[in-house]
Amino acid sequence: MPADRGSERHIAFAPMTAADLDAVRAVEVAAYAHPWSQKHFQDSLLAGYPSVMLLGETLPNDPPQAVRADGRVLLGYLVAMPGVDEVHLLNITVAPAHQRRGWARFMLDALVLWSRGQRAQWLWLEVRQSNTAARRLYEGCGFSQVGLRKGYYPAGHLHREDAVVMSLNLVAPRSAQVAA
Q: 20 to 30 A from 131, CA-CA: which of 73, 159, 162, 165?
């Protein structure tokens, strides 16, 4: 389990529901200059896409506004879209107060295991070209850059940013992926 400020934190995955969207959206807005809209999340839930939250027990230094009614803290979440022989990661976010502690890697590893359990052969994602931290994370997990989508993301008034398309072969031995 990733470290969290030197303290152990009991964590659990929970399905994201419509009742969670205000909290999820608050994290999304805090984490990104161009966040997903409430409708993005609602549409994903309505489509039945796997959408999960990573929840942790409250620690003394957690801000009170981050604590949910059930006493747990929203550490992060992900939304994926299954397809034929593949899964597409649509959104993976760690709450800013909990970043750089291994939670993104933890959620990504869980998604890889889930995807393999679904018999997916590939895991796909897009990431902002400027998001070097995320790209390093994905590369460290064995993802490879396979393309570029020009002007994919909004980047301010009348500007767009390219997306790096990455994939992970879920059926190749892990040692072959990391060596590639």
A: 73
The tokens of 97 are what?
């107060």
Q: Which one, of 36, 42, 47, lies nearest residue 21 by Cα?
A: 42
Is 74:12 a contact under the CB 8 Å cutoff? no
CA 24 and chain centroid, separation: 12
d(CA 24, CA 84): 28
> CA dist 10 to 67, 72, 138, Å?
14, 10, 25
- Each residue of 102-142: pLDDT tens digit? 999 999 999 999 999 999 999 999 999 999 999 999 999 99
pTM beyond cutoff 0.70: yes
- Cα–Cα distance for residue pair 54/94, rounded to 1 Å: 9
Cα(167)–Cα(137) distance, rounded to whole angstroms?
13
C-alpha 28/C-alpha 91 separation (Å) is 10
Stronger pLDDT, 164 or 176, i.e. the higher one: 164
Task: State the Cα–Cα distance between residues 61 and 108, nearest whole angstrom.
Answer: 26
- Asked if 94 and 103 count as a contact pair (C-beta separation under 8 A), the reply is yes
